[in-house]
Predict the 3D structure of the following.
Amino acid sequence: EAGVTQSPTHLIKTRGQQVTLRCSPISGHTSVYWYQQALGLGLQFLLWYDEGEERNRGNFPPRFSGRQFPNYSSELNVNALELEDSALYLCASSPGLKNTGELFFGEGSRLTVL
Amino acid sequence: SQQGEEDPQALSIQEGENATMNCSYKTSINNLQWYRQNSGRGLVHLILIRSNEREKHSGRLRVTLDTSKKSSSLLITASRAADTASYFCAPQGAGGFKTIFGAGTRLFVKA
């Protein structure tokens, strides 16, 4: 069974640009979570989607947004990139609101903003 | 939502020694999970302990939970260089599944 897949794995952008990161959850999983991990730091919760709806949002500015598609895949969009947006962006999935709580993570998308 | 706080921030041991990491949280939980992250990679789920359990084992891992003290510990026995990673706890309360992670414990196992 395929795990959580994320794309792209690495990308470099310049300040002010926009980026879209993609995540495909494990088949059958309806919840998708996004986290930001700056170098050497812990994970900061960004967004949680379930069944196509945004369920919760972390303490990030509105230029961070996302959506979940009918097939449960998800996109994270970041507009007007700033240098401090450089980080590893991790996506995780779970079976949804009835799950045990275990999250399954992808390998991440490493974004560098120059 | 819940957030666990791991302690110590970093731990350096020799191969073969045991490593103990601690986690504290603030409100009641349904379960608590431990994850491992190898450098620059995604997190891997290690073990889940429910609020009505006090101890759980998985291979070389032993997790304890003390709900009265709102704390958990992860013990890795006979550590190996491959155990070098960051370890995160994730307490999960009722009514929602937004999982918040702390800063983690960085474990270095020297060969």
